[in-house]
Amino acid sequence: MGQEINPKDTTRAEAFELWMKSPMPMVTLVKSFDVTCLYKFSRRRGMKFNMLLCWCIGKAASQMAEFYDLPFEDKMVRFDQLAIGPVINNCKGGINYCDIPYIDDLQKFCQDYHDICNKAASQCTNLCLDSEMMVIGTSAIIQTEIDSIVNQYAKGFNNPMVMWGKYRKHWLKVTLPISFQFHHVQMDGGQAAQFLEKLQMTINAIA
User: Residue 111 contacts by C-beta under 8 Å, 6 or more apart in sequence?
Assistant: First the structure.
């Protein structure tokens, strides 16, 4: 469960004053990733590529304090656990949202991912943990290759969002542009860039 904290007691005090009332406080960075290791691991283990990428996102984010403090309305809320929130296609042709708690155990995360996503898809319902955990939203638009995604800003959802399209196969490697949208109160560009570097290192290390 998130606990309200005083922004003045955090490293984001000045950012809170500058950006909390901004009409458009979101920033988007785009980086092209080498996902060759992830692709090969997915094929070798029979695990879904998008599930593995969600786990890598959680692992990289869990190493950074900025991801645990979320600006919400006029407050700053601190969480002690992260979750990954994919958008899934349901059985009626629509979409639903579901949140998977992040844990270091990849096999357990994989099982939770399949169980929760399948339940949301079959019941056409949202399974959300945003009041209990800091959720990192994700969206995979795998029908085509996409260079960049800039999401709409909805004031009720200040959470970071990681988005991507279809990966690209080259002769010796597989690449994937990934868009990372974040609230400027939660972190600056420097921390966001650090997260993207950690994500690449996590992808490289999965093998």
Answer: none
Strand 75-78 vs strand 3-5: parallel, antiparallel, or unpaired?
antiparallel
CA angle 118, 168, 50 (to 5 degrees): 20
Does 152 score more than 90 pLDDT?
no
Confirm if 119 and 171 have CB atoms less than 8 A apart: no
Q: Is 99 helix (H, G, I), strand (E, B) or coil?
A: coil
Evaluate if pTM is beyond 0.85.
yes
Residue 207 scores a pLDDT above 80: no
Contact 90, 120 (CB under 8 A): yes
Q: What is the dihedral of CA 121, 124, 130, 136, to 10 degrees?
A: 40
Buried b / exposed e over 4-19, threshold 16 CB at 10 Å, is eeebeebebeebbeeb
10, 76 Cβ separation under 8 angstroms:
yes
- What is the distance in angstroms between the CA of the first residue and the CA of the last residue of the chain? 34
Q: What is the pLDDT of residues 64-121, one digit of tens each?
A: 999 999 998 889 999 999 999 999 999 999 999 999 999 999 999 999 999 999 999 9
| Token pair for 49 | 């590529």
* 7 and 16 Cβ atoms separated by less than 8 Å: yes
